[in-house]
Structures are given as structure tokens and as C-alpha cells.
Design goal:
Blueprint: E1 24-28, H1 42-50, E2 54-60, E3 63-70, E4 77-84, E5 91-99, H2 102-117, E6 128-129, E7 139-141
Antiparallel strand pairs: 1-2, 2-3, 3-4, 4-5, 5-6, 5-7
């Protein structure tokens, strides 16, 4: 186990997520399932990914990372959000990514956790919004990375 990683890491369904002990796990249904991997059983993909709109929600203070699967089965995509606030409809949207690429979404989650942990978003003052206002947007980054 890496230094600074909590014992809750072992409890997470996706062992590639590098969460630190300061984060609280609200929802964890993000399994190690690549939607483009044809070797994974279709029923497993359907039950553990395509039917799970809410895959992962972790929180540190007022920062939230939310991951879901949106759209119909294999035509869908991962939707990843980092927002600051306690309400999805009245928050500061800091990052958004839509992709089918499993490895990219895992890397993005770990990058967001690290950026929050190191204070990169603490001085960002983005306008309050509803995340639903940005439904059609595929990528948003206040850090311009």
C-alpha cells in the first residue's frame, strides 16, 4: 500500500483508483470493466457498468468527484465531474470529461484526486451553475490542462 493511502482503498471496487484517506467514499460501483474490452462477459458489462448510471462518488471537504455511465449500453460513455459545493444544481463545475476510454477515465480520476489533494483548485473561483447546464459539453477544465 502507498504511503498516504487509506485502508478504504482495499474496499474500493476498482483497485486502480488511488484515493487518499482524506476522501470519503459516498458511492462505489466502479468496477475494473473496460466497455471496449470484448473479452469481458457482456452480461457483466450490462449489470456492472451499463445499468449503473452512478458509478463513483467521492468527496473531500466540499470537493466532489462524480463518475457515471450515460447513454444506452455500449453506445454510452463515462461522464466524470469534479465540482465544488454540496448541490449538483448549485455548484462550481471545475472539470468534466466524457469518454468511452476506461484507462483515460481512471487516469483522470487519479489526476483529479491528486490536484485536489495538492490544492490546485482551492483558489479557483468559477461561477455557480447547475451541472445540467453543461450536459452537451464533453470537456471542461478550469486548470486548462
Amino acid at each position: 500500500m502507498n504511503h498516504g493511502t487509506s485502508s478504504c482503498k482495499e474496499k474500493m471496487k476498482n483497485s486502480f483508483i488511488q484515493i487518499t484517506k482524506q476522501w470519503q467514499i459516498i458511492r462505489d460501483e466502479f468496477y475494473e470493466i473496460d466497455p471496449l474490452d470484448n473479452s469481458i462477459d457482456e452480461e457483466k458489462k450490462y449489470n456492472d457498468l451499463f445499468c449503473q448510471e452512478d458509478l463513483l462518488w467521492v468527496q473531500k471537504s466540499d470537493f466532489n468527484i462524480d463518475l457515471g455511465w450515460y447513454g444506452e449500453e455500449e453506445k454510452g460513455y463515462f461522464g466524470l465531474y469534479l465540482y465544488k459545493g454540496i448541490d449538483w444544481h448549485n455548484c462550481q463545475l471545475l472539470e468534466k470529461r466524457n469518454t468511452k476510454d476506461y484507462e483515460s477515465i481512471v487516469e483522470s480520476i487519479n489526476r483529479l484526486i491528486k490536484n485536489v489533494d495538492t490544492g490546485r483548485y482551492h483558489k479557483v473561483d468559477n461561477k455557480l451553475c447547475s451541472i445540467d447546464d453543461y450536459y452537451e459539453t464533453e470537456i471542461i477544465s478550469v486548470l486548462n490542462e
